[in-house]
Amino acid sequence: MIQHLKSVEQAFVRVLEWAVIVLIVALVLDVLWQVASRFLLDDPSTWTVEMARYLMTWLAMLGTAVAFARREHLGLDYFKQQLHSDAQRPVEILGQLVIIAFAVWVLLGGGTRLATEVFASGELTPALGVPKGVVYLAPPIAGACILLISVIELLEMLTGAKPASDSSPQPDVDSAEDGD
After folding, report:
1. 131, 77 Cβ separation under 8 angstroms
2. pTM
3. Domains identified in the chain, total number
4. Of 22, 3, 9, 4, nearest to 147 (Cα)?
5. Model pLDDT for residues 13-58, shown as the tens digit of each residue
6. Which member of 9, 10, 42, 147 lies 3.0 to 4.6 Å from 103 by CB, making a disulfide possible if both were Cys?
7. Which of 83-92, 113-122, 168-177 has maximum average pLDDT?
């Protein structure tokens, strides 16, 4: 079952990565158009700044989920590795539980409530004219992604499918070179 969940997670992360790529391309094109319309056409576009702001919001939130899935986020591994090897697994499990609680409470709970309230208000973005709630959907969607990834990680830890973290120090790349 864990193997099946890992393959689902990998496919899911692949979709997230492509979404981030599309957002980056859209952001670059948006900013390029803003510069071109301002300096080449001498008629600045009115919607590009707003679009860039909203693209950046989505990019930051989905990029956070991708970084979390790749384990490229800020972690406290140094402190965990200072613990006895028997204490490391419980600390990893506790860390996953804290991440799950944050994803559920702040990103999913708070984000969903905020997006729902903004959608209910019927407020539109000034330049683009799209429902402002679309912008506020980024945190709950990122939260759902982080929650899914974290639950799979926790299940791996609890079932023993994921080996305990290696607490041995990593070799220094510079010292491994000959002649230095």
Report:
1. no
2. 0.81
3. 1
4. 9
5. 999 999 999 999 999 999 999 999 998 888 888 899 999 999 999 9
6. 147
7. 113-122
Does a structural domain hold residue 34? yes
Range of the domain at 44: 2-165
Q: Would residue 121 count as lying in a domain?
A: yes
Select from 114, 13, 30, 105 the least CA-distant residue to 64.
Answer: 13
Query: pLDDT confidence of 163, banded at 50, 70, 90?
Result: low
135 occurs within a structural domain: yes
Q: Length of the chain in residues, anyone? A: 180
Condensed to tens digits (0 to 9), the pLDDT of residues 168-180 reads 444 444 444 444 4
Inside any domain, residue 41: yes
